[in-house]
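$ run holo --ligand "magnesium ion" --emit tokens
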Amino acid sequence: FLEKGEVEFKNVSFSYPESEVPVLQNLSFSVKSGETLAILGSTGSGKTSLFQLVPRLYDVSEGEVLVDGKNVRDYPIEALRKGIGVVPQEAVLFTGSISENISWGKEGAVQEEIVQAAKDAQIHETVLKLPNQYDTRVGQRGVNLSGGQKQRLSIARALVRKPKILMLDDSTSALDLKTEAKLLEALRKYACTTFIITQKISTAMEADHILLLDDGSIEAWGTHEELLETSPLYVKIVQS
Ligand code: M5T
Ligand code: MG
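-- output --
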């Protein structure tokens, strides 16, 4: 659906349709195929809003978002929805089995692929302990899962589609550091371009680039080492 998964923002500004308030201001950056971008910034700084512009959940107000050099407006919406795996900040489960929840949105997923995605998302072991394993019902009137378990199921849902671009919106916030490290390691073989919103410096340090958002603008861009040199705000976050 997408060729390589390169993403470029060119002078992007954005405000929500019903509002005049600019949420993102003049963002420019690019991420190459297979690279990981960590996005940091305080609450309300615009991280989730930035995410939404890539699969066109919203359109930019000004500027351009390019995927593989082409404006996202020029793609069939299908290609964006299928080529980009978005894991939302609040994991959503449907009433149905674990298998159905993972394969949702991917017609014809076979059990093998579902299990592999669950393994990579670090949820397989948990599923095996449920009363009916992959056939266990979740959602309304189903078993209760913890926040972190729901997050991992919704990551598995994105992975089963083998996206070219994977966008994790604070999706590992409930995971302990060891489980998160395993998950990030497992993601490598997907070789997808990965955007990861995180509050954890340990996660950001592993990324190829860090984008620090402050009130809708880029406060800093670079690697962990570069930001330690160039961004007092980043240093403050590291020390806090
Ligand atoms: C940035 C506003 C929000 C804030 C700004 C998602 C959303 C956000 N906003 C809307 O008006 N409508 C919406 O549908 O936009 O918000 P954000 O992008 O959600 O910020 P964040 O992701 O960095 O924050 P958080 O709390 O998830 O860390 O003024 O009111
Ligand atoms: Mg958010």
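-- notes --
The radius of gyration is 18 Å.
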